[in-house]
Amino acid sequence: MVVKGVNIPNEWIDKQCEILDISIDEAVNMYLADVGAVDNEEQNALDEKAKKVKVKHGAESVKERKKVERKREPNELKREIISIIASTLEDCYEEEPLIVENLKISNVEKYIDFSVGDRTFTINLVEHRKPKK
User: Fold this and answer.
1) Rounded to the nearest 10 degrees, what angle do helices 24-35 and 10-20 cross at?
2) Would you call 78 exposed, middle or buried from its count of C-beta atoms within 10 A (0-12, 13-18, 19+)?
3) Is the peptide bond between 131 and the residue preceding it cis, with omega within 30 degrees of 0?
4) Residue 96 has pLDDT above 80, yes or no
5) 99 touches 93 (CB < 8 A)
6) Model confidence at 61: pLDDT above 70
7) Domain boundaries, the chain
8) Which of 45, 62, 81, 122 has its CA 20 to 30 A from that of 26?
9) Cis omega before residue 97 (within 30°)?
10) The predicted structure's pLDDT at residue 1
11) Are 25 and 13 in contact (CB under 8 A)?
12) Please, how many CA atoms are within 13 Å of residue 88, restricted to the half-sphere of its CB?
């Protein structure tokens, strides 16, 4: 059925008439209101009223929190491990089959960068936390 330029499925009309126990005209008007083909003054008034309300999302705290600067303590064990690995790479592989070049400690507790021939490598040292019991 086509009303006001809107194609309304006949199955939908029949289903609504049966479920809601309404007439065909009421079902057609309901469909037209749902798709916005007719102006519903009551709905427009409610929409305007809702647009005027400003909703604040999220909670606001009463006190302003200060940002805490955490001072990171140096990890001496990781520094020692990185230096041992770097010195081992320098000392052990100065001859064939691996010639380590451009050895650089990028971060004294984390990274060692080096190259072998035309290929570049990075060693990343990660300390894992103790497992929870």
Assistant:
1) 110
2) middle
3) no
4) no
5) yes
6) no
7) 2-41, 76-124
8) 45
9) yes
10) 64
11) no
12) 8
pTM: 0.46
Q: What is the distance between the alpha carbons of residues 133 and 129, in angstroms, rounded to a whole number?
A: 12
**Residue 70 in tokens:** 């955490």
Structure tokens at 2: 């086509």
Extract the tokens encoding 120.
């570049």
Torsion of CA 47, 53, 59, 60, to 10 degrees: 160
Find the helix or strand (DSSP H, E) in which 76 lies: helix 76-92
Phi/psi zone of residue 38: left (φ > 0), alpha (ψ -120 to 50 degrees), beta? beta
Q: At CA 42, angle to CA 40 and CA 44, rounded to 5?
A: 70
Tokens of 4: 């006001």
Residue 122 near residue 78 (C-beta atoms within 8 A): no
